[in-house]
Give the backbone structure.
Amino acid sequence: ARPLLEVSDLAVEFRARSGVVRAVDGISYTLAVGETLAVLGESGSGKSVGAQAVMGLIDSPPGFITRGSITFRGLELTDLSERQYQQVRGRRIAMVFQDALSALNPVFSVGDQIAEMYRVHADAGRADARDRAIEMMDRVHIPSAAQRFGDYPHQFSGGMRQRIMIAMALALDPDVLIADEPTTALDVTVQAQIMELLAELQRDNGMGLILITHDLGVVADVADRVAVMYAGRVVETAGVDDLYARPAHPYTEGLIASIPRMDLDRQELQPIEGAPPNLARIPPGCPFHPRCPRARDRCAVDEPPLYDVAADRGSACHYWAEVLSDHE
Ligand code: SF4
Ligand code: MG
């Protein structure tokens, strides 16, 4: 079946006076109807920039899409004018950001903000828009939604504000929801509740969900498939169970080895040495080679493509077969 969303060899550059930053340099992934794809990476790996490109938000200096394609139900999004993009952004593909407080307007009630967004985009009357806002507040489990319609953002907790952002994103019934670190600003219990809510809504709506995160724990709980990003590239794609049981890239191996495990002593944790590269100065060859425990001479000069490892699995490591076989 045709994927809902397909990102293929997408590259994004930011051109500043100090030089060119290749924030995204050839990422590819697909999202099927009803699927949850986690885009996993450290900060600065390009995972948010890739999502902004899908939302059509990289369309003016200093950011440029320099290569690749983004198709939604077969429609090439990179060819759309801003006017055409407005039919897609928010309606067919919606996004929730990390920081709900700065995304909400402090001087309007949350109900009015959801209703107004709905009224404008769905061309609805005021009464219908108000009903839709209350319905959506209820769907994200805001207690006494109708009574809280007129409350302002500061009258809600961080977790409730994030629920309101999710309500707003889903009010137009999008086919794809992109959630960029939606729980990072929240405490751990609330994080779990928000992830549970996203999973519930995803099941009920049958939408595709792209979850951008640096948290492997979140990935294990909710994702069907994972795209692991490093230095603006996708370095591994796999089903979530395969990824954990048999990683095919040394970076993924390192991430998994660094998860604290109850059954191991603290000193057995193996964090990955070093830091991710500055995107203005990505190392030649394999961008992971300065940190890679498996690196050899070839890795410093020869950049690996995303090799096909199996059906629906890829690894950007020349030695993926060796990595895999070490996890047999
Ligand atoms: Fe490591 Fe070389 Fe594989 Fe890159 S290509 S991940 S440096 S072994
Ligand atoms: Mg980010």
